[in-house]
Amino acid sequence: MMTAAAPAASAALLARGICRAFEQLGYASLLEFPLANGRRADILALGKTGDLVIVEIKCSVADFRADRNGSAIASLPTGSISLCRMSFPPC
Known about the structure:
Structural class: alpha+beta
Helix content: 25-40%
CATH topology: Trna Endonuclease, Chain: A, domain 1
CATH class: Alpha Beta
Mean pLDDT: 75
Strand order of the largest sheet: 1-2-3-4
Strand content: 25-35%
Number of domains: 1
CATH architecture: 3-Layer(aba) Sandwich
């Protein structure tokens, strides 16, 4: 049986791994980055050439269905944003 804290712990471990992968690819990453529209990105990564990647972490199907960040992030008026939505079953 999964506790309420399990998805948060899974998301934290996943974010740590994603940030490590970004670092190996030459990106600098920030967690819980506030966006101009009042939302926040789970991870924002900045590449050496100025490209931005926003990662929205989902640890359950219910979390994925309940969240509306994807459309809000994708509609931001910026030059180069890639939206990567990662959905994982509960751990």
